[in-house]
Amino acid sequence: MATIYEVAALAGVSPATVSRFFNGTTVSPEKQRAVREAAAKLAFTPNKTARRLRKQSSEVVALLIPDIENPFFTALARGVEDRAQEAGFSVVLCNTDDDPGKELRYLQIAASEQMAGVILAPASDEADLGAIASLGSPVVAVDRTTPYPVDAVKVDNRAAGIAATTALFDAGHRRIACIAGPVGIEATEDRFLGWRQVMTARRAAMPDGFLQHANFRADGGHAAMQRLLALPEPPDAVLTTNNLMGVGALQAVVEAGADPARFGLAVVGELPFLFLTPRSVVQVRLPARHLGTTAASMLLERIGGDTQPPRTVVLRAELAR
C-alpha cells in the first residue's frame, strides 16, 4: 500500500501538503492537481492517514535529549531535523538534563500542544509516556529504550563496550577499570557489561572499585578517575562509557602526572576536544547522525499511518582506526 511520503515524492510536494489536501485545508490548485494525480497513480487510500491527521493540529515534532552540549546529541539532533525538514515538519528541541521530572514536563507540553509526535532519549528506564500515549501520538525512543511498546533505534552498546575493552587488551593493558554513567541507563549498562564480558573471558582481575559510576559529563569522569587513581593498586587503563566522561578522565590522568600516552584510555564515543587526544586513545565511533535520521524516519512513518507492531532498529558502532 502506498504511503503519504510516496505520494508526496511523486507529486513533488511535502508530506504536510498531502495531509492538508486530504484534510480539506487550502492548497494551491497546482498542488491539488499534482497530489490528486500522484494519489491516483499509486492507488493511495487516505482514510487511515486522514483520521490520524485530523486529530492533530500541528506539523511540529518534539525532540527530547539529555544534553545538547554533548556533541553526540548535537549530531543526533541534526539528523532528526534534516529528515523532519525534508518532510515539511519542524522540530522543537528540549534539553532534559537527564532529569525525569523535567522530561515529564516536556512530554506534557508536547501532549497539550498536540504535537505530531515525539522522539526522546529517555532520562531513565521509567520514562512516563502516559500523557502523550493517551492521545495516540507516536513516540520513538532513541539511544535508549522505554518499557512502553514504542519504536526504538539504538546502538549495539554491548558490542561497543567489548570492542573498546578488547582494544585495550590488544595494546598490552591488563588492569582495566570502567567509568560508567548513572545506574539505570540502559546504554551505559550495556557498555559496562561488554567491559565485564571481556574481563571475565580474559580472566583479568576486577578488584573492588574498578567499576565507577558517574554523571555523563566531564566533571563526572574527572571525579571517578581521581577515585580510581587513589586506589592502592590503581588501573593501568580505563574505559569510559561516553565521550565527555573520557575528557574528564584524561584531565585527571594528566593532573596526576601520569603519561597519557602510556596510560590506556578507551572511550565509547569520540573525544570532542582534539587538543587533549593522544594517539593512544581508543575511540568507538557512534553513528549519532544516523540514529537521528532513522528515528525521524520511523516517527514520520507512524504519523503517516503506519500501524505495524513496534520495532527496534539496532545500529553498529565502529572502532576508530
UniProtKB/TrEMBL annotation:
<dbReference type="GO" id="GO:0003677">
    <property type="term" value="F:DNA binding"/>
</dbReference>
<keyword id="KW-0805">Transcription regulation</keyword>
<keyword id="KW-0804">Transcription</keyword>
<dbReference type="InterPro" id="IPR001761">
    <property type="entry name" value="Peripla_BP/Lac1_sug-bd_dom"/>
</dbReference>
<keyword id="KW-0678">Repressor</keyword>
<protein>
    <submittedName>
        <fullName>LacI family DNA-binding transcriptional regulator</fullName>
    </submittedName>
</protein>
<dbReference type="Pfam" id="PF00532">
    <property type="entry name" value="Peripla_BP_1"/>
</dbReference>
<feature type="domain" description="HTH lacI-type">
    <location>
        <begin position="2"/>
        <end position="55"/>
    </location>
</feature>
<dbReference type="Pfam" id="PF00356">
    <property type="entry name" value="LacI"/>
</dbReference>
<keyword id="KW-0238">DNA-binding</keyword>
<dbReference type="InterPro" id="IPR028082">
    <property type="entry name" value="Peripla_BP_I"/>
</dbReference>
<dbReference type="InterPro" id="IPR000843">
    <property type="entry name" value="HTH_LacI"/>
</dbReference>
<dbReference type="InterPro" id="IPR010982">
    <property type="entry name" value="Lambda_DNA-bd_dom_sf"/>
</dbReference>
